[in-house]
Amino acid sequence: MNKKLLTLLLAAGMAVIFVATGLYAGTDIPDTITMDYNKYKKRKKKPPKTKFIEFAHKKHNVEYKISCGDCHHDKDNKPLDLKEGDNVQKCAECHTKMAKPKKKKGEKKKKKDILVLENAMHGNCIDCHKEVNKKAGDPKGKKGPAPATCAKCHIKNKK
After folding, report:
1. What global pTM score does this model have?
2. Strands 33-34 and 54-55: what pairing?
């Protein structure tokens, strides 16, 4: 066989292997995600006051028909067009500040820093939940099928 033809076939075969591997190399997402950011929770000698939040990822996507782009976005806050198997980063990959800055005495309230993980997650989840509750009939959006208050998500640990 001709050396050029053999080299061409070998290169084409390798390209097919790389493309096929890339198609199946996406992120495997569990049905439920535990929002356990170890860097975020300050550990003390006793256990945390609340349980880690269990986010029903599959339920939100399949049952509630929430698209990936409703939560996952780019640096300009534009929704990402994701498909199952795409490589997706965790919230903490971009929202890297793990604690809110301390408010100084007499300081005016600042706009919430979206790079703070807590602000990003609260904004994303609570805003969506309030909208669901408003559509269900509560004008303030705090009561309804979607939890929108602290105690509904942050469940206290038994002592």
Report:
1. 0.71
2. antiparallel
